[in-house]
Amino acid sequence: MESMLKPMRSGDQDVLDKDASVTPQGGVNDTYGEDAATENVAITPWARLVASGLELLRNPKYNKGTGFTEEERDLHYLRGLLPPAVFTQDLQMERILNNLRQYETQLEKYVDIMDLQERNERLFYRVLIEHVEEMLPIVYTPTVGEACQKFGSIFRRPNGIYVSLKDKGKVLDILKNWPEKDVEVIVVTDGERILGLGDLGVQGMGIPIGKLALYVALGGIRPSTTLPVTIDVGTNNDSLLKDPFYIGLRQKRATGQEYDDLIHEFMMATKQAYGEKVLIQFEDFANHNAFRLLAKYSATHLVFNDDIQGTAAVALAGLLAALHLTGGTLSDHKYLLVGAGEAGSGIAEILALEISRQENKSVDEARKRIWLIDSKGLVTKARYESLQEFKKPFAHEHPPCSTLVSAIKAIKPTALIGTSGQFGAFTKEGLEELSAYQDLPIVFALSNPTSKSECTAEEAFLYTKGKCLFASGSPFPPVTYGDKTFVIGQSNNCYIFPGMGLGCVISGAIRVHDDMFLAAAEALAAQIRPEHLEKRQLFPSLKEIRSISAHIGAAVAAKAYQLGLATRLPQPEDLLSYAKRCMYTPTYRRYR
Ligand SMILES: NC(=O)C1=CN([C@@H]2O[C@H](COP(=O)(O)OP(=O)(O)OC[C@H]3O[C@@H](n4cnc5c(N)ncnc54)[C@H](OP(=O)(O)O)[C@@H]3O)[C@@H](O)[C@H]2O)C=CC1
Ligand SMILES: CC(=O)C(=O)O
Ligand SMILES: [Mg+2]
């Protein structure tokens, strides 16, 4: 049976062509190019197919594989195209997990599970949602890092949009090639700072794909509304430029005006294609672009930078949770942040903001509790003139300290937070010094992937003699020290961005405000219960993440309404139950 070609209903928002060039003045959408005003303009011949037979089996959105019922096999021309057995989705999931567990390497698991996303989307998300703790280290950090390093070699089927310098002037057309018109969340990278692995060029695409899989699985965003994007302006990674299997532009990175123009064209095109309320998450840009792009587009787009703001919120939630054990308030602590880039400065700023709100003091005053270390040592006033802008507010009067140990000795921090991307930066000596003058030192080793973590969980407990309150960016198994076993909370922005996205979508937010991140952090910290604290676990289990994301989503939405940034009116009475009801579920639907 041939697929039936079904014309679109006019007025269908899914397919309305929003290109200003084919929309006459007056704003009437001219889907079919029927207006005199657009006579000489090319239009897109959109069409919708009702899939059946082999086409249905090859469509990941609708394919159920062996999960198609007998009735569906008859109705949709599938009989004979599948082996006779009919599996439940549960049994299919068990088979997938059995197969995955046979592989020897994490990368093989990655390739296999991402292949499932391209074959049977609902089954993929069911596996992710129900086995989140097992699957996250595969589709996300640390394995996604290795996948990006080898992306050219393992590349099978494309997913997402690639915008390269070659596409200048055509970015809107490219977005139109994406089959979905109702895009709500975009994650975009230019691949220059992929986790702590540096410049991976276009191969950074693994990150937007992975992050958006988490938006769906962890935050309940509908898969059809997500769009991974990589902007390819070249790479300065010489080994990639020499690699015959490299899949990106083979040139050094464009900078300056050329770079800015392409990003600007992309940002404008997203609004033209998807409207004012499309959420854009900047991800893994190098910091020389990250801060200025965020500043530039925050005023005109619904945009945030995950590495700056998402990381800040998750770390703040961990610190708020730690207070249950240390006692006191945030301002009773002294913070030493090792790594003063996007993540480090982001955490420093949100901390200062939260302290200033809690203590009713100025942000400048609050900043005095917070110290930064970068690759040149302690950030001090003496270095002021040569510092990047985002470090300047934390440059305090102090003699220079070139090593971590000397800085710990001089400042006596109660919390040590690593975002340096330097494996082993938290040395035995440093951790011993930190635990010499306090009972419960806070140690966060947030750099990803695992190979870049400032210390392992085991080292943290060993060198602090079991005293520390530890969290890490990538997952670590529980650690036993003496007669106690500690569960390691993952201070990773994946606790925040799915709920942030959900909150923006359900409220119809038009801008992201810092207070929405504070609300997200507080909502996450509120999920900590005594049973977590008994194990010194500063983040709730990822098994609970869907419910956590709903709470964060509701808190973010509530803040958006309060700030007048929400457009979905009237405001639902019970935002939490509304958030839950809006979440995507991957169970198979019946087909008629
Ligand atoms: N857990 C999480 O959720 C997240 C973790 N991260 C991780 O954090 C790391 C950094 O990311 P990001 O902040 O975006 O990167 P940036 O490049 O913006 O910042 C890195 C910072 O580390 C500093 N640094 C480098 N070497 C040293 C050193 N030996 N000692 C002290 N500081 C050093 C750099 O110094 P200088 O300024 O002098 O160059 C810079 O300030 C990555 O590994 C990333 O994966 C990032 C986002 C989220
Ligand atoms: C988690 C994350 O966003 C990073 O490491 O860059
Ligand atoms: Mg990141």
UniProtKB/TrEMBL annotation:
Belongs to the malic enzymes family. SMART domains: malic, Malic_M. CDD domains: NAD_bind_1_malic_enz. The keyword NADP does not apply. Keywords: Coiled coil, Metal-binding, Oxidoreductase. It holds the Pfam family malic. It comes from Sphagnum jensenii. Residues 117-298 form the Malic enzyme N-terminal domain. Residues 1-33 are annotated as: Disordered. This is Malic enzyme. Residues 308-561 form the Malic enzyme NAD-binding domain. Its cofactor is Mn(2+). InterPro entries: Aminoacid_DH-like_N_sf, Malic_enzyme_CS, Malic_N_dom, Malic_N_dom_sf, Malic_NAD-bd, Malic_OxRdtase, NAD(P)-bd_dom_sf. Residues 9-20 have a biased composition (Basic and acidic residues). Residues 93-120 form a coiled coil.
